[in-house]
Amino acid sequence: MATVHFLNVGEGDCSIIQHNSGRVTMIDICGGNETEELEEVAKILAYLQGVNQAAGRNYGMKEHPTNPIKYCKDNKIGAIWRFILTHPDMDHMDGLSNLFSDVTVGNFWETGVRKAKPDFTKGKYNEADWDCYANLIAKKRQGVTILSNLAGAKFQFANEGDPEGHGDCLSIVAPDPGLVKAANEVEDTNDASYVIVYRSAGGRIVFPGDAHDGTWEYVLKHHRSLVENCAVLIAPHHGRHSDRSFEFLDVLNPKLTLFGCAPSEHLAYDAWNNRQLLHITNNQAGNVVLKTTEAGIEVYVENEKFAESYNSVDVSRTHYGCYFIGIVPKPTAQAAAA
Questions:
Q1: pTM score, two decimals?
Q2: In what order do the strands lie in the sheet with 195-200?
Q3: Of 111, 138, 229, 269, which one has the fewest beta carbons inside 10 Å?
């Protein structure tokens, strides 16, 4: 069965899907410029910090991020069939240059939204990553196919072709040309962010980048059936408040939401708590690995001390070095559709 990796990359995003076809999708990258120095010491410190924290409190895993490139190499994930850039903010392409230098990447998806080059004289991001992105969208990088398909597109290997005529079961539900045009006019890339639905055997998993209110209005109007009652949601904009409405949660009704890392005062916990929606953060769990099955989605977490806070934890049952904590049952309404 397919496996999804939601990596602990600090205040950014990176997810990896290993499809049943053998193809691999990476959605965004952050932390790809992290060095490997003192990695083992960091792991020990993370463990000890977890020991000293109460269950469900701050486990401090955001202080020990994963480098996605090294993660792929260590876990023999291999070539990336497609890299999907949800939108060109630097926390979604931190390490892009290293990725394309160190790993074979065949296809690059981008929405067509554009923004001015950032000022790299300040801050933590590398100009080389922007330059790599600029070369990609200008189609100057040999051996990489650039695709700019938008909402509703049907195309080979994404949602057509082998296996079984559905490809890798990836559907684009946003943006449409109107959202891209509007975003380009005001240079706000969030509402031209890709929203990708992966129709896994265990239920739908939604990857929304930094989708904002305009995007969700479009998705719920035109592609509601693909996102409602989903199994897993990757929290948009890492789960930040960002002055947004969270009414889309009433339709998506995710059985599990995965939050990235951000200061806790910036995270919209109340939007999930008020709806009694289960959520896990990278800061608690470290990396999260989802193993899809016909019955649902098995959930594994990197942080052993956090895993032990679940009564169902079985420390002898691991997947990619992560500990099993439970299963998200397949939503019944999706049994036939998926």
A1: 0.92
A2: 170-174, 195-200, 203-207, 232-234, 256-259, 279-281
A3: 138
